[in-house]
């Protein structure tokens, strides 16, 4: 049985943090220049009482309404987040109940960041190929804003909150192709929230300022931006070449490359390194920022409105980041 | 590799400050413009011009442009 993308919707929290507000908070930061380089105008931020699962539910409800899908059709929930409601139970179980998805549905959470959407598609395809499920609700939702220290201007510039819902089914408009996945846990400490898990239960610690003046404690999100950039420059071009080979397509046959929308500077560097023309490389993050696992489905939903998707059109999706973890696939439109 | 050329390429990563006086001995973090974004730009420049991977750690432990040049030279010749 083949697996297809049948529908995509997304949700963004109402509250926004725009560049003017960041400029007022950090006058010395030179936000205009930085924002122009990273390609971000505004980012959406979850309310204090709004959590990733609430946003995932909102995205799912949009999916149901926009695409005339009934919750009763869903037989599996895959929920990707690094901001679960609790250690236990699994947040996907709570989502099942709130969305009135049948009790006969399977449901699991999986913890990945920027590679999460591609992994979700891989898991969904596996469930369909094995005949385990037929209508999989793949949810991605993240609230990094709740991890980021208020004085961490770098991460506050880059990250936004958001959620997306995708229906993966035995029929749909785009067939999910072959996957290339990868992992290198040696990079774990370069993008991490160290405290709050079992190894280091949360406690207040002193704030540390990194060499670029970003403040955080071990209970906040820490990102070594230059190191992540270096890893990406090294690892992603071969990932793309392997994905093309495995799907037996040429670079020139891909009409849109949709990468995890990390930041425009990094994406442009990767695009040039791969020799892809700007018109075949989709960047749309000005209004969304880096929403972690939801950047690819949000960009896809936008690209579906803007771009030609005639029969046989191929898009390549690639996610990479925290872990380190990466993955890519090709989708082909009917 | 040529150190004079490398110093120019390095200096090109700064947009705001004057870099005319940059030499191999310039302490590249000791100015108002240095930020994680500049670090990213240097890593990108090395990748584009020399096709080797400069790590965030390489940048962190370096002080002068010569330090970075030496690391890149080693990688290019390694």
TrEMBL record, chain A:
Boundaries of every Beta-ketoacyl-[acyl-carrier-protein] synthase III N-terminal domain copy: 108-185
Organism, as annotated: Mucilaginibacter pankratovii
A Pfam family recorded for this sequence: ACP_syn_III_C
Keywords: Acyltransferase, Transferase
Keyword Transferase found: yes
4Fe-4S found in the keyword field: no
Protein name: Ketoacyl-ACP synthase III
Record domain Beta-ketoacyl-[acyl-carrier-protein] synthase III C-terminal: where: 246-332
Automatic annotation (TrEMBL), chain B:
InterPro entries per UniProt: ACP-like_sf
Matching SUPFAM superfamilies: ACP-like
Protein name stated in the entry: Acyl carrier protein
Source species of the chain: Mucilaginibacter pankratovii
């Amino acid at each position: 049985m083949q697996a297809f993308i049948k529908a995509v919707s997304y949700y963004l929290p109402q509250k926004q943090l725009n560049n003017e507000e960041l400029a007022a908070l950090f006058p010395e930061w030179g936000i205009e220049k930085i924002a122009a380089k990273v390609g971000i105008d505004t980012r959406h931020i979850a309310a204090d009482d709004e959590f990733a699962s609430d946003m995932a539910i909102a995205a799912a409800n949009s999916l149901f309404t926009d695409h005339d899908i009934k919750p009763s059709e869903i037989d599996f929930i895959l929920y990707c987040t690094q901001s679960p409601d609790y250690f236990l139970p699994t947040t996907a179980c709570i989502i099942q109940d709130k969305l009135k998805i049948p009790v006969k549905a399977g449901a699991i959470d999986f913890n990945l960041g920027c590679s999460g959407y591609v992994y979700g598609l891989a898991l969904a395809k596996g469930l369909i190929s094995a005949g385990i499920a037929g209508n999989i609700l793949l949810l991605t939702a993240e609230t990094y804003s709740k991890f980021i220290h208020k004085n961490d201007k770098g991460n506050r510039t880059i990250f936004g909150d958001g959620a997306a819902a995708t229906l993966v089914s035995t029929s749909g408009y785009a067939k999910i192709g072959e996957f290339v996945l990868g992992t290198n846990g040696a990079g774990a400490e370069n993008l991490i929230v160290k405290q709050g898990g079992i190894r280091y239960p949360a406690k207040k610690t002193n704030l540390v300022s990194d060499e670029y003046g970003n403040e955080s404690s071990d209970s906040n999100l820490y990102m070594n931006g230059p190191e992540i950039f270096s890893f990406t420059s090294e690892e992603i071009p071969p990932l793309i070449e392997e994905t093309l080979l495995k799907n037996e397509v040429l670079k020139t046959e891909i009409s849109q490359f949709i990468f995890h929308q990390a930041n425009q500077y990094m994406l442009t560097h990767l695009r040039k390194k791969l020799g892809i023309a700007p018109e075949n490389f989709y960047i749309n993050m000005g209004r969304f920022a880096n929403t972690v696992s939801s950047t690819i489905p949000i960009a896809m939903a936008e690209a579906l409105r803007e771009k030609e998707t005639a029969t046989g059109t191929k898009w390549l999706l690639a996610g990479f980041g925290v872990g380190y973890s990466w993955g890519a696939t090709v989708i082909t439109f009917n | 590799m040529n150190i004079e050329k490398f110093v120019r390429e390095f200096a090109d990563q700064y947009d705001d400050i004057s870099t005319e006086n940059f030499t191999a001995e310039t302490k590249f973090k000791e100015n108002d413009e240095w930020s994680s974004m500049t670090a990213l730009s240097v890593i990108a420049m090395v990748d584009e011009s020399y096709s080797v991977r400069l790590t965030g750690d390489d940048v962190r432990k370096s002080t002068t442009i010569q330090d970075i040049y030496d690391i890149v030279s080693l990688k290019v010749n390694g």
